[in-house]
Specification:
The complex is a heterodimer of chains A (about 525) and B (about 160). Chain A is α+β, with helices and mostly antiparallel strands. Chain A is built from 13 helices and 21 strands. In chain A, about 40% of the residues lie in helices and about 25% in strands. The chains are: A alpha+beta (about 525), B alpha+beta (about 160).
C-alpha cells in the first residue's frame, strides 16, 4: 500500500490499541499511512526560488562592489529560503483514504484540508525546471469550489513523478469500490487515445499572438535595467546608432523601427510558443479523463474528468483569425481562474480547433461549427453607434480643447472603428444543438462557446435602456464551470427567450407570457 | 421557431415601500460626498468653471435622487416558487434573474446600517456559478427571514451537489 516514496516515520494516523480480547471485527477503518512530500524538495524548492531571484542577487551582491550588508542580506535570503523549505517539508503530510484526500501543513498555524474524493474534478501536474532535474512533480487538485485567489487549494509541491502519476490515476478514478482498504493502484492503465498533438507547422501562428510584443517589452525593460545597474556603456553606441537613424528621413526611421520591433517580436513569440506548448499532447485516458500535456521547461499535465466537462470555448483573436487560426479552452468546473490551466489547444488552425472540440465533446459535427442564427438588424445599429459615437464625441471635444491634428486623427479612425463594429455584428450569433447552447460574439477576440445544456444552472436576462428601445436583450446562461456566465449578446427579446426556454425546458416557462 | 411576442412577465411581489426611503437616503449620501467638497471649494474661490460644474452636479443630484428611487420601486419585484427564485431589478438598465431551487447552494440575509434603521433586509441566493447570485433587496425583515427559511428547507430536501 505504501508507495515507494515518502514513507515517513511513525504515521500519525492513529495506532491500534493492543487487543486484549479477540476484537470485534466491526470497525475495520483501514489505517492509511500519511506520506511526506519527496525529500528531494529540500533541494528543489530553494533551487527554484533562487533561480527566480537571480536578478536580485546579481543586483545585490555582484553589483554591490563587496559592500558588507549586501552580501549579508543575500546570504540571509538564501538561508531563509532553505529554512522555509525545510519547515515546509517537515510539516506537510498527506494521505488518501477511501473517501477523502487529507493534507496537513503549517508549523505555527496548523492547517488541515480534507476534500471528499467525489468532489475532485481536475488534477494538474506541474514540473518546473528544478522539479524535472530531480524527477519531481507538483500536484494540484481542483474541486468544484471557487478557488480564492491566493489560496493554495489542495496542492502537493512536490512528490516524485511516479507517485504523481499514481495519485493522478487514483484521484480521478472514482470507481466505487466496496472492498474497504482497496486504495492501492488500479489495474495497469492502458495508454490514452491521442486526440491531437504538437505540430511544428503551428509555429506559424506564434507571431500572430501578441506574446512576442510582451516578450520584447519585458526584455527591453530588463536589459535597460541591467545596463543601468552595470553602468555599462551600451548607451553610448546605442545613442550613436539612434542619432544615425534619426538623421535619415522620417519614413525610413519609422520603417526601420517597426521592422526591428516586428522581427524581434516575431522571434520572441516563437520562443514563447515553443516554451509553453512544446510536446503538446491531448489524450483521452482510459479512466475517462481528458488530459493535456505540454511545456518545454516547465511541463504541465492537466486532467479533467470528462463528466465535469461542460463545454468548449474556441477563441479567435483578430490577428489569429486573419491567419485562420484559433485556440481553444475547456469549460469545466474545478479549474481555477488562472486562464492557462483550462487550455485545450494552443494557437492552431481553426479547423483543428473544431476537430478537437468534436473529439473532446464526442459530438460530430462539432457544436462550435453549428450554423448560427444571425441577430436582428437593431443589433447592427447598436454596434455601429457604439463604434462611432464615442469617437465623434471625442473628436468634438478635441476640436475645442486640443490642437487641430488630434481631432483629425480621431475622425480618421472612424472608418476603422465602424469596420470593427460591422465585424462585431457579423460575429454575433447563437444556436441550439441537441446537447449544447452555442453562441458567438466579439471582434478583437471572437469567442464561440458551446455550453452543455444540462450544465446551465440559471438565467440572467439583462436589458439596458438602449437595448429596451431597440427590442434587444442580453441573455446569460449561468453555470458552475468556466467563467460562470456565458452571454448571448443583443438577441431579439422574443427570440432570445425562446432560445433560453428551449435550452433548459421548464425553467423559464412559468415566467413567460405571450 | 414561432416566437410570437414572447416576453418575461413581472415577478409577483413588490418589495417593501420603505425601499424608496432607503434608495433616496443612499443616493443622497452618495451625492453629498461629491457635492460637499465642491461647496467648500466655492466658499474660497468662484471661477465661472467651478460654478458651472457645481450647478451641473447639483441638478444631476436632485434629478437622480428624486427619480431613481421611485423608478426602482416600480421595477423591483421578486417571486419564489417551489421550482425557482425569480427577480427583476434595476431602473435604467434592468435585469431578470432566475435560479432554480434545485441549484441553490446558500441563502443569506443581510442588513446594512440604513436597512436596519428602516427594518429592511436583503436576501441573497447563491448557486454554484460565480456569476449567478440572486439578490432580493428591500424586503421587510420578517418577510426576508421567512423567505430565507422557506428556501433553505426546500433546498435541503433536494439531493445532489448543485453543480
Amino acid at each position: 500500500m505504501n508507495p515507494e516514496q515518502g514513507g515517513g516515520p511513525a504515521p500519525t494516523g492513529g495506532a491500534l490499541p493492543p487487543a486484549e480480547f479477540p476484537a470485534a471485527p466491526a470497525f475495520v477503518e483501514p489505517v492509511v499511512d500519511w506520506h511526506r512530500l519527496d525529500v528531494r524538495m529540500l533541494v528543489v524548492r530553494p533551487l527554484n526560488e533562487i533561480i527566480g531571484l537571480v536578478p536580485v542577487f546579481v543586483g545585490l551582491v555582484v553589483l554591490g562592489r563587496g559592500e558588507g550588508w549586501r552580501i549579508v542580506a543575500g546570504a540571509g535570503v538564501i538561508g531563509a529560503i532553505v529554512l522555509f523549505g525545510l519547515l515546509r517539508w517537515m510539516t506537510t503530510r498527506y494521505r488518501i483514504t477511501d473517501d477523502q484526500v487529507e493534507i496537513t501543513t503549517g508549523l505555527l498555524v496548523r492547517k488541515r484540508l480534507a476534500v471528499p474524493r467525489d468532489r475532485i474534478r481536475t488534477v494538474d501536474l506541474t514540473a518546473k525546471l528544478g522539479h524535472r532535474l530531480f524527477g519531481l512533480s507538483a500536484i494540484r487538485v481542483g474541486t468544484g469550489q471557487r478557488d480564492q485567489p491566493g489560496e493554495d487549494g489542495l496542492t502537493l509541491d512536490a512528490v516524485s513523478s511516479a507517485e504523481a502519476e499514481r495519485l493522478r490515476l487514483l484521484l480521478l478514478t472514482r470507481v466505487v469500490r466496496d472492498a474497504p482498504g482497496a486504495v492501492d493502484d488500479a489495474e495497469e492503465p492502458g495508454e490514452g487515445v491521442a486526440l491531437s498533438s504538437w505540430d511544428a507547422r503551428w509555429l506559424r501562428f506564434a507571431p500572430l499572438t501578441l506574446s512576442g510584443l510582451v516578450a520584447v517589452g519585458a526584455l527591453f525593460g530588463l536589459t535597460a535595467n541591467f545596463a543601468r545597474e552595470l553602468e555599462v556603456e551600451v548607451l553610448g553606441p546605442l545613442t550613436e546608432a539612434a542619432h544615425w537613424v534619426m538623421d535619415q528621413p522620417v519614413g525610413l526611421t519609422a520603417g526601420l523601427l517597426a521592422g526591428a520591433v516586428l522581427v524581434i517580436a516575431g522571434f520572441g513569440s516563437v520562443v514563447v510558443y515553443v516554451v509553453q506548448f512544446w510536446g503538446y499532447q491531448l489524450t483521452r485516458e482510459p479512466d475517462d479523463t481528458v488530459r493535456v500535456r505540454r511545456g518545454l521547461l516547465t511541463t504541465r499535465s492537466v486532467s479533467v474528468a470528462e463528466q465535469r466537462l461542460r463545454g468548449v470555448e474556441v477563441a479567435e483573436p483578430l490577428l489569429l483569425r486573419a491567419g485562420r487560426g484559433a485556440h481553444a479552452k475547456t469549460v469545466t468546473t474545478g479549474l481555477g481562474r488562472k486562464g492557462e490551466s483550462s487550455l485545450l489547444l494552443p494557437p492552431a488552425p481553426v479547423a483543428e480547433a473544431h476537430r478537437v472540440t468534436a473529439e473532446v465533446l464526442r459530438q460530430t459535427p462539432p457544436p462550435t461549427r453549428a450554423a448560427l442564427r444571425r441577430h436582428p438588424v437593431a443589433a447592427l445599429r447598436r454596434r455601429m453607434v457604439r463604434a462611432v459615437v464615442p469617437l465623434l464625441v471625442l473628436a468634438a471635444a478635441l476640436a475645442f480643447f486640443a490642437p487641430a491634428w488630434t481631432w483629425q486623427v480621431a475622425l480618421a479612425l472612424v472608418p476603422f472603428s465602424a469596420l470593427l463594429g460591422w465585424d462585431r455584428y457579423r460575429s454575433l450569433g447563437h444556436a441550439l444543438t441537441d446537447r449544447y447552447l452555442v453562441a458567438r460574439q466579439g471582434s478583437a477576440v471572437r469567442g464561440t462557446f458551446a455550453l452543455q445544456r444540462t450544465g446551465i444552472i440559471g438565467w440572467r436576462v439583462s436589458r439596458s435602456f438602449f437595448q429596451r428601445r431597440a427590442g434587444l436583450v442580453t441573455i446569460s446562461a449561468t453555470t458552475a464551470a468556466g467563467d460562470g456566465a456565458y452571454h448571448v449578446v443583443d438577441v431579439g427579446e422574443a427570440e432570445g427567450l425562446a432560445l433560453a426556454e428551449e435550452a433548459v425546458p421548464d425553467l423559464l416557462r412559468p415566467f413567460l407570457e405571450r | 421557431m414561432s416566437t410570437d411576442q414572447l416576453s418575461l412577465r413581472a415577478p409577483r411581489h413588490r418589495v417593501s415601500r420603505k425601499s424608496i426611503t432607503l434608495w433616496t437616503l443612499t443616493a443622497a449620501i452618495g451625492w453629498a460626498v461629491v457635492l460637499v467638497p465642491q461647496a467648500v471649494a466655492l466658499v474660497f474661490s468662484r471661477s465661472p468653471w467651478q460654478v458651472a460644474v457645481a450647478s451641473a452636479t447639483l441638478v444631476a443630484a436632485v434629478a437622480h435622487t428624486a427619480v431613481m428611487p421611485r423608478w426602482r420601486y416600480r421595477v423591483h419585484r421578486w417571486e419564489a416558487t417551489p421550482e425557482a427564485v425569480y427577480t427583476l431589478a434595476g431602473w435604467l438598465n434592468q435585469e431578470w434573474r432566475i435560479a432554480p431551487v434545485s441549484r441553490i447552494q446558500t441563502v443569506d440575509t443581510k442588513r446594512g446600517p440604513l436597512q436596519q434603521l428602516l427594518g429592511l433586509s436583503t436576501v441573497t441566493v447563491t448557486t454554484a456559478s460565480a456569476a449567478g447570485p440572486v439578490h432580493i433587496e428591500g424586503l421587510d425583515h420578517a418577510d426576508a427571514v421567512r423567505l430565507a427559511d422557506e428556501l433553505t428547507s426546500t433546498t435541503q430536501a433536494t439531493p445532489g451537489d448543485a453543480t
